[in-house]
Amino acid sequence: MPERETLDVDVLIVGAGPSGLSAALRLSQLQKAAGGEPLSVAVLEKARDVGAHMLSGAVLDPSTLRDLIPDFEAKGAPLATPVHDDRIYFLTRGGKIRFPFTPPPLTNHGNYVISLNKFVTWLAGLVEAEGVDLFTGFPGADLLMDGDRVIGVRTGDRGVGKHGEHKPTYEPGVDIRAKVTIFADGVRGNLTKELMRRLPLADGRHPQLFAVGLKELWDVPADRLAPGTVIHTMGYPLRFEEFGGGFVYAMPEGKLSVGFVVGLDYKDPMFDPHVAFNHFKLHPLVKGLLEGGQMVRYGAKALPEGGWYAIPRCYADGALIVGDAAGFMNSMRLKGIHLAMRSGMQAAETAFDAVRAGDTSAARLQQFETKINDGPIRRELYPVRNVHQAFGHGLVAGVAFSGLSLVTGGWWPRPMHSEPGSDRMEKLADYYGGGAVPDGATGANKPDRQLTFDKLTNVHYSGTRHDEDQPVHLLVQTDVCHTICTAEYGNPCQRFCPANVYEMVVTEGAGKRLQINASNCVHCKTCDIMDPYQVITWVPPEGGGGPQYDEM
Amino acid sequence: MILVIAEQRAGTLNRATWETIAAAQQIAAGEPITIVVLGSGAGAVANELATADVREVVNVEHAALEPYTPDGYTAALQQAIDQLAPSLVLLPHTYQTRDFAPKLAARLDRALITDATGVKTTGERAFVRQMFQGKLTADVVPQGPGPHFVTFQIGAFRADQAARGAAPAPVRSIAVTIDASAIRQKPEAPFQEAKQAVDLSQAERIVAVGRGIKAAEHLPVAQKLADALGAELAASRPICDSGWLPMERQIGSSGQTVAPKLYVALGISGAIQHVVGMKGSRTIVAINKDADAPIFEVADYGIAGDLFEIVPAIVAELKK
């Protein structure tokens, strides 16, 4: 049997997204400036190619980019589309009301519509040019710890068969040991989740609140919508009790980013974010933009919306947490890329000093928290600290509080209470008043396969691929499914998963059973977040598997 | 001159080579075609290929070419291409091609277009290639000095459309020198996933089952039809995922891509993941309870009905 390899580095970065790559780039900049013995840096990325798992709207606030790469234009940053028009609509079933003005947090003047996939691919090129080792196709599978100290990460095994047997291609994961490990494993990152379970990093903090975003990339006639137009919507098809909204961002040559975001704290167990997305596309405002065009890509990703009070302690002995993994996102501005990058930069500065000083203890790495508190991240997130929680009281309360917080700086007598989103889902009997669940409770229509699609067809356009002969990477205590869950919640996994991973199939004679189509998984993490019993654990599948979000 | 690189293993020609010959004939427009076959003792394969309507078949014989190694093939083909000076080199997009073609193209520093599904000959010659899982197709024009390399997707051209010559084409041998010690790979016996491993891409008829079969116990219904037709049994993903059939019998984006003469889809709804793996089949027959199932959009013949009634009736009819 092949032996497990080990690798020792000074700084290990888990995840090659905006935060992880910003950290890597900042480390090499500091290295150049300081001279001396070079630090060894490694970056792990579960996708086969850097950027393949990147999904965002996206509108980029270039503030951090300017600080990190002042000559970003000369270096060819893919920022083709400056925002020149902001529109916000409140949608009703067939109509729309345009906001007379754009609220300041949603003003995008000076920002860019980007493809995060292209942006991250570009960033990775700069990082590689600095000689940093980028290990693509290597997920971080397990923490390596020595007591309370993080000493590195074990990557996932390869060549393990469906039933756990070793195939001829078997290779055990590599132990990468590092003085500092920077966790940039994204929203609901599996290693950050495990770290927060082992160390009291979330004590005294609010539970993180999440949303899930579904997005399609469309090719439409080039004159449909001027490049740089940014449309946000509230209201239909959501009800007042659900948080979220839609977006359409126009890029050159008739490329539209069309998406829908729903708070993963909805009450109705029959609610299906993908159905809401389909209704959104059929609304006259959106339908008029898409008709005659072609959907070319699909994807989904959760996002952390809890804000300031939901951010855990982001340092431990030998460890820092950055980006979406920590929850550095501004849900009021609908932006997080610049904060992810900023947190990556500041983590790199902290890690660099710590390694050079020969002290990577939590006490030393606490500098990261100081940098966040004294810098642009707190300045941006603290004033909107209660906003998403206010939406927990409904759309009207949320909008009212958002408006108020612009004046008051977000003041409220105390941090607004919130609970994990999965706890807010009500049981069928409670939500539907004890009666039978009405037919068509999900509101799903038959997809027309022009504008609207079933989940399975959509998954095809996510480019998702996994080796089929590997263990299921969604660890589910399935004994709950066909017994308690069917009765209490009607198996909501079938609805909240945007990729048709979960299916209750009728077996002859044996009732229903949960079938997990793990190879459909687009790595959005919604199931890990929203399952009401919290019995689903997402672990990384074999490296290289997952979506292929070209141009997303 | 257009050069087709044939594929053989242990004296057996890979059927996909004929598809590539058909492609070459479609492209040629008067330009002569040469087929090159590599191996040790592959003379019979060369003679088989000589029935094609081509200018000549070139046999590259060398002991170091058996068994196949990417280093051996690259060295031999580099010399063969130097001697023959083709303008275009065509290959079937097989696993073996995927293994050595990028290396060969890089060695010669020439353009390589992989997995093409067609060719446009009006105006500048362009090769059609699928993008975004087949949602868009790109017309790709190779740049830089020739010869350009193009590999064709299995099923993109039809083997039976390869024109045969009135008389056998001449077969000649050319010599190459291969330094056996420079071959870095030491191949072992071909790996067999299972005892009854099947290469569905070589099957002429396939009967595929989907969820409509309901239970593993009902598979014999489909097997009887497959036996009656002389077909291989295959399946859509859920069937293999449930372990009712082995994974090598799975058709679709996460399984095999096939293009048989006859494809019978039983109880398969026609999710796009499945359709991309079989839409190149010449004749598609679908049987499904749901008349709105997308499989009927790609089917040449469709029966909306219960497969458990229809299939036994077809089997009975075939046995008459």
Question: SSE layout and pairings?
Answer:
The complex is a heterodimer of chains A (552) and B (320).
Chain A: E1 6-14, H1 18-34, E2 41-45, E3 59-60, H2 63-68, E4 81-82, E5 85-91, E6 96-98, E7 112-113, H3 116-129, E8 133-136, E9 140-146, E10 149-155, E11 158-160, E12 166-171, E13 175-183, H4 190-198, E14 210-219, E15 229-235, E16 244-251, E17 255-263, H5 273-282, H6 284-290, E18 294-304, E19 315-316, E20 319-321, H7 323-326, H8 337-357, H9 362-365, H10 367-374, H11 376-381, H12 387-391, H13 395-408, H14 421-424, H15 428-431, H16 455-460, E21 474-476, H17 481-488, H18 493-496, E22 502-507, E23 511-516, H19 526-530, E24 536-538
Parallel strand pairs in A: 1-2, 1-13, 2-8, 5-15, 13-20
Antiparallel strand pairs in A: 3-7, 4-7, 5-6, 9-10, 10-13, 11-12, 14-17, 14-18, 15-16, 16-17, 19-20, 21-24, 22-23
Chain B: E1 2-5, E2 8-9, E3 12-13, H1 16-28, E4 33-39, H2 43-49, E5 56-61, H3 70-84, E6 88-92, H4 95-108, E7 112-120, E8 126-131, E9 136-140, E10 148-152, E11 171-174, E12 205-209, H5 219-229, E13 232-235, H6 237-241, E14 262-266, H7 272-275, E15 283-288, H8 295-298, E16 301-304, H9 307-319
Parallel strand pairs in B: 1-4, 1-6, 4-5, 5-11, 6-10, 7-10, 12-13, 12-14, 14-15, 15-16
Antiparallel strand pairs in B: 2-3, 7-8, 8-9
Helix pairs in contact in B: 3-4, 5-9
